[in-house]
Amino acid sequence: MSNSSSMPQFLLLAFADRRELQLLHFWLFLAISLAALLANGLILSAVACDHHLHTPMGFFLLNLSLTDLGCICTTVPKAMHNSLWDTTTISYMGCAAQAFFFLFFISAEFSLLTTMCYDRYVAICKPLHYGTLLGSRACAHMAAAAWATVFLNALLHTANTFSLPLCQGNALGQFFCEIPAILKLSCSHSGYLREIGLTVISACLVFGCFVFIVFSYVQIFRAVLRIPSQQGRHKAFSTCPPHLVVVSLFVSTGLFTYLKPPSISSPSFDLLVSVLYSVVPPALNPLIYSLRNQELKDTLKKMMTGCFSEAKMFLFSAP
To answer: What is the DSSP string of 202-238?
Structure first.
């Protein structure tokens, strides 16, 4: 069975049957996406323009903002389009592209969070070697390795999934194209086993990253507790809470999505959970980091003050 000829399009899960609720979902997603675009755009501008933020953490924060923007721009626009125009369809190639880019950006986010954990570990546990272990070249190599690895991972999963014959209809039961939802439509045992093999490899990598994060924070806690003064302990650990919160939000929503008991599963509940892990974290990450990073807050204040000053000058100087 040829997918491209027999499955020209897929049906996504609608947020609601009533027109009023569909429009409500459109405006809600529009507000979330605009907030995420503004917040991540401000972080990108702040890190790029302020030399005080040209640090390893600033570099990785810039990359994290790119992944957040990618996640939002991959899933939300099509959902908004479907809610506005009262449709649920997505083309076969559009579904393949959406599945690839979502897996690519969501995997890149976890890889970058792992790398940022290494940055905190070196800064607190090996401060004298920070410049050597996390120089500009080392940071660039780590970021390039993370992006290249997740690109290959997303490409393999997407190519294998969309090469499978589908014989269980074309309704995905999800508001965006996701590989697990597409696999449920497959009727190829060999292709399904191949995807399971790829998933096991990916799961091992994810588990390895998770173990590394846990091990790093155990070492960080031990190093912080050895600092004699309370002020020193607070100063050393003050940069860790944003990373811990973002990692916890990312891991908890992902685990709940894929490991929740079948007894509590329903279309509306699954839809809410999928929004929770695919849309909410990318929108909240900039807020979490900007609230705790004093240098970033200062830079954002300067940018906003400068923009307001220029706007006032323009308005009052206009004839």
So the answer is: HHHHHHHHHHHHHHHHHHHHHHHHT-SSHHHHHHHHT
- Give the E-state strand segments of 12-126 in sequence order: 89-91
Return the sign of the alpha-carbon dihedral for residues 262, 265, 270, 274.
Answer: negative
- Contacts of residues 85-91 at CB distance under 8 Å and 24 or more positions apart, as own/partner, are 86/19, 86/22, 88/11, 88/12, 88/13, 88/14, 89/9, 89/10, 89/11, 89/12, 90/9, 90/10, 90/12, 90/177, 91/8, 91/9
Report whether pLDDT(131) > 60: yes
91: three-class secondary structure by DSSP: strand
| pLDDT of 40 strictly over 90 | no
Whether 78 has a pLDDT exceeding 70, the answer reads: yes
| CA 245 to each of CA 125, 185, 198, 276: distance values in angstroms, whole numbers, following the listed order | 20, 36, 29, 15
Alpha-carbon distance 99 to 254, whole Å?
A: 16
Q: What is the mean pLDDT of residues 257-269?
A: 67
315 — phi, psi (to 5°)? -70, -45
Which residues are within 8 A (CB) of 274 and not within 5 positions of it... i.e. 6 or more apart?
174, 175, 176, 178, 257
Spatial CA neighbour of 274 closest among 285, 286, 265: 265
- List % helix, strand, coil for the chain (3-state, nearest 5): 80, 5, 15
Main-chain dihedrals φ then ψ at residue 266, nearest 5 degrees: -155, 160
